[in-house]
């Protein structure tokens, strides 16, 4: 008897240009580290690196959206 396919389609299709090849590291002081860990525990975040990556990108995109050039500046 043939096995059933049990693959789950990814939420976003894989694209070769989206492969992460650049490592970024940063340091936190004790209070920042505790705050991040409290947040992760409180909201049951299972993927910390995804959370950090999305937080950084969200902040960057928000700032770029706010600082876009206008016609009368």
Automatic annotation (TrEMBL):
Protein name: Ribbon-helix-helix protein, copG family
Provenance organism: Paludibacter jiangxiensis
């Amino acid at each position: 008897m043939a096995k059933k396919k049990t693959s789950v389609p990814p939420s976003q299709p894989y694209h070769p240009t989206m492969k992460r090849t650049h490592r970024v590291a940063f340091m936190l002081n004790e209070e920042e580290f505790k705050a991040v860990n409290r947040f992760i525990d409180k909201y049951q975040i299972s993927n910390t690196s995804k959370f950090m990556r999305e937080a950084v990108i969200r902040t960057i995109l928000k700032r770029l959206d706010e600082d876009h050039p206008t016609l009368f500046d």
